[in-house]
Amino acid sequence: MITITTTINASINKVWEFWNKPEHITNWAFATPDWHSPKTENDLREGGKFTTTMAAKDGSMSFDFEGEYTLVKQNETIEYIMADGRKVEISFNETPNGVQVIENFDPETQNPEEMQRGGWQAMLDNFKSYVEEN
């Protein structure tokens, strides 16, 4: 598993809402400024499914990031299985410095792990900035 983390200066309720509501996900779920997430659907419950379309702003490529939730504990934990079978675990921990988000995910085999870590961390950093600025 690969682990990434950040601490966000916001309340646990705000972090949870911005992580899970489609109107917020479309504002942060991409790794670089030349990409965006034009569409998201999220059924946040065990057995529920999600899909986020990630696309290059120039229209050259896009893909759907999707999966099914296996565990949802409000303001604490989300676990899901991606469409390709890889597992993801996310924990939200209140600390004196804000909410620590820890994301663990199974790497895929097409790209180096450091590249995957960098892409996922960039998206998590976008999330932190979006929450703290809004």
Automatic annotation (TrEMBL):
Q: Which InterPro entries match?
A: ASHA1/2-like_C, START-like_dom_sf
The Activator of Hsp90 ATPase homologue 1/2-like C-terminal domain extends over 9-132
Query: Which spans of this chain does the record mark as coiled coil?
Result: none
Q: Name one Pfam family in it.
A: AHSA1
Sorted alphabetically, which Gene3D superfamilies does this protein's record hold?
A: 3.30.530.20
What superkingdom heads the lineage? Bacteria
Q: Which family does it belong to?
A: Belongs to the AHA1 family.
- List the protein's name: Polyketide cyclase
Q: Origin organism of this chain? A: Flavobacterium cheongpyeongense
Q: What is the lineage of its organism?
A: Bacteria, Pseudomonadati, Bacteroidota, Flavobacteriia, Flavobacteriales
